[in-house]
Write a structure and sequence with these properties.
alpha/beta; five-stranded parallel sheet; 51% helix; globular
Length: 285
């Protein structure tokens, strides 16, 4: 088994696709026999300042000792680099040099990337490693996934309840898995049960975003905001704008984050106090 892998999903991977990418990475690390795993979450490009070395951002710097040392217990160390597509060119070049000197018996590395890796790193992985592709999840894929999960979990789900789950979550199998976790144990899942429990998505991304802003974590907050606006929420577009108020408000939020403005807490309070969108009336299957 090779010591370098890339798990490549679609650009702008949705939560369900991202879950599959991370699950595939986890299985690879288990197959490689990694006794422990160091996870590096690459910040979005431009989200952090370059560190003391003048090349790597602080969120990327832990890659250096991880790829150089191996496990403290003498076993194989797993290194998981998440959002590797966000590595800047100079960072990717440094990673390539580290891979040239890496001991494949001591270290196993997986780059999890939504879209293409930076060119120098992509060439290196293709030459000495292996690329595993996770395809974009279509509606039919989500339908097949849901029926397989219902069977595996021994759930009794009425046909109209199945249709309601697919309407509410679309191709977001990550959110659908959370929904099924809540439904497990019911004697029978009905459409009323689905509508009552999941008027909104179980995992509300806007609160994760507000928490990141409040904590001053600029990179995490920008990623959460991007997830929410682009692909992370299955509600209708008018409900998106109802929760975030307006595009000008969003621009102000990003400005506060990038400038680390002292007004950011006020922005968080404004988001938290915004009126919640009312769920749409359910349409019978």
């Amino acid at each position: 088994m090779k010591a370098i892998f890339a798990v490549q999903g679609p650009s702008g991977a949705a939560p369900g696709e991202r879950q599959q990418m991370l699950e595939r990475s986890r299985r690879l690390l288990e197959q490689a026999g990694a006794s422990e795993t160091v996870r590096i979450d690459v910040p979005a490009r431009g989200a952090e300042e370059v560190g003391e070395g003048g090349v790597l951002r602080s969120g990327v710097e832990p890659l250096v000792p991880a790829l150089q040392s191996g496990s403290l217990f003498g076993d194989r160390l797993g290194v998981e680099v998440v959002d590797a597509q966000s590595l800047q060119k100079m960072e990717a070049d440094v990673v390539v040099e580290l891979l040239d000197r890496m001991d494949p018996e001591a270290v196993f590395v997986v780059f999890v990337t939504a879209g293409s890796l930076p060119s120098s790193l992509a060439k290196k992985v293709k030459a000495v490693g292996e690329v595993i592709t996770v395809k974009k999840i279509r509606e039919q894929d989500a339908n097949d996934w849901l029926f397989a999960q219902i069977k595996n979990r021994n759930l009794r789900v009425r046909p109209d309840a199945v249709a309601a789950l697919l309407r509410k979550f679309g191709s977001d199998v990550a959110a659908m898995a959370q929904a099924l976790d809540q439904l497990t144990g019911l004697e029978e899942v009905t459409i009323d049960e689905v509508n009552v429990r999941f008027a909104n998505r179980p995992d509300e991304p806007i609160w994760h975003y507000a928490d990141a802003v409040s904590a001053g974590d600029v990179g995490q907050a920008l990623r959460r905001l991007s997830d929410f606006l682009v692909h992370g929420h299955p509600l209708r577009s008018e409900e998106h704008t109802s929760e975030l108020q307006s595009h000008s408000f969003i621009s102000y939020a990003v400005f506060c984050l990038k400038k680390k403005s002292t007004r950011s807490p006020r922005m968080v309070r404004s988001i938290a106090s915004a009126p919640r969108a009312s769920p749409r009336p359910s349409v019978p299957a």
